[in-house]
Design a protein that fits this description.
Blueprint lengths: L3 E5 L4 H12 L3 E8 L5 H15 L3 E6 L2 H5 L29 H16 L3 E3 L15 H14 L7 E3 L7 H10 L22 H13 L14
Parallel strand pairs: 1-2, 1-4, 2-3, 4-5
């Protein structure tokens, strides 16, 4: 029986590369996407579906999580909080951080993995070159691994795999291009669904990665902050 991996696919470039690397390693991919009331939910879901089609994923889950908008506390899920566009502040966690989002995603994904008898879960967290979210660190993933080991059946063996955790955005672009990953299908902007703003943290990180890698980003931008 072919080994299975559940790939958490946001529609962004990091999780997309992670899924393509899983396929390259011989896993049968089961994709999961979370709609959690984020500003660009419609565009991210569109990207997820396009990527699944390119990957020829036959089994996928689209999970709706309603309580993040009820909780608020993040500019991604509360329209009354402005998404910062003045540049990345490395001294603090930005207000785009959604409280414990990856922990909740991993917990739900573990449930799917146990049901599907998958041996791995791929998540595209990036510790080295990100907005400084605490739930993207290698230590956090190790602790979640322990919780999943303890909270599932004895015969269940699920490994959390984070192939990008120590990569820089430049490397992510380079590896994506080397492996023909369709980054033009992905979406990273925190603010807009028509044209990427080019100014939010996520746009800035993406554009900088493309620039340092020497490639042009094919998605539409209102402003290109690296120019």
């Amino acid at each position: 029986m072919k080994k299975k991996a559940i790939c958490i696919l946001s529609g962004g470039m990091d999780s997309t590369l992670s899924a393509y690397l899983a396929k390259k390693q011989g896993y049968e991919i089961i994709a999961v996407h979370y709609n959690y009331g984020q500003r660009t939910q419609k565009k991210e879901l569109e990207a997820f579906r396009d990527i699944c089609e390119d990957l020829k994923v036959e089994n996928k889950y689209e999970i709706d999580i309603g309580f993040f908008t009820q909780i608020g506390a993040s500019s991604l899920t509360d329209i009354n909080i402005e998404v910062p566009t003045s540049g990345i502040d490395e001294t603090s966690v930005p207000n785009t951080y959604v409280p414990f989002r990856n922990g909740i995603f991993l917990a739900i994904t573990a449930s799917i993995a146990e049901k599907e008898q998958a041996s791995a879960m791929f998540i595209g967290v990036v510790q080295e070159d990100s907005s400084g979210y605490p739930d993207c660190s290698e230590e956090f993933i190790k602790d979640m691994q322990k919780a999943i080991d303890e909270g599932t059946k004895k015969e269940t063996k699920i490994e959390i795999i984070t192939p990008l955790v120590h990569m820089q955005k430049k490397q992510i672009v380079e590896v994506s291009m080397k492996n023909n990953v369709p980054l033009h299908l992905t979406w990273s902007c925190y603010k807009n669904e028509d044209e990427a703003c080019g100014l939010c943290d996520s746009c800035r990180l993406r554009l900088n990665g493309f620039s340092l890698a020497g490639f042009s980003d094919k998605i539409p931008y209102k402003v290109k902050s690296n120019e």
